[in-house]
Amino acid sequence: xxxxxxxxxxxxxxxxxxxxxxxxxxxxxxxxxxxxxxxxxxxxxxxxxxxxxxxxxxxxxxxxxxxxxxxxxxxxxxxxxxxxxxxxxxxxxxxxxxxxxxxxxxxxxxxxxxxxxxxxxxxxxxxxxxxxxxxxxxxxxxxxxxxxxxxxxxxxxxxxxxxxxxxxxxxxxxxxxxxxxxxxxxxxxxxxxxxxxxxxxxxxxxxxxxxxxxxxxxxxxxxxxxxxxxxxxxxxxxxxxxxxxxxxxxxxxxxxxxxxxxxxxxxxxxx
Length: 271
Description:
about 25% strand, Rossmann fold, about 270 residues
């Protein structure tokens, strides 16, 4: 089943403090990336699937969504969630839509996988904002992207007629982690694989050397983050005095942070 979504809504006020403009990419380039991953980049795709098969069974929930560049390749094989959806700009998945405007309700997803979306979408900030907004409290976000500090990334030095996929953005995983912390997510894990150069992705000697000497700087990184749950505050009532467990209500993280800032500002004013 294919669902087609198109929207022109512009929401640029979503990530205060990290907004900037990015170079746009063409649909032809994104299609080329998808083809490259299934052909010349197959060792990278296989390594990513191997890492996910080990990770996904431990992620609990009901609804999982994979966001892909180009024609989707199923990366959720290890997930045990009954509802699994694949989203891409291209036909071939369940949902055809722009990843900058995910057509999912807020707090409706338990797992969201961004497969090189931050590398090749026009606005990675908005992709992350929409992704986190669609996650339920405690939901898991997995980001797969090309690592800028790796032997594989040396292919970007080809300034003339730079081929796919070295035209991508290649964000540092630490930078992605910083953006996610602003969006109230905790980064739990970052790993990497495929330590050879552009022409030696699958050579075993490079894998052994990389695992020993530069284990965090493979051709790609895999980042796992979890959306923070709301803080809880007890409400005083008669049951509390009687020894009964107090009633708990959710408190917005934004409200809590603002209250703390106001308290600090007031104390500094009096001093």
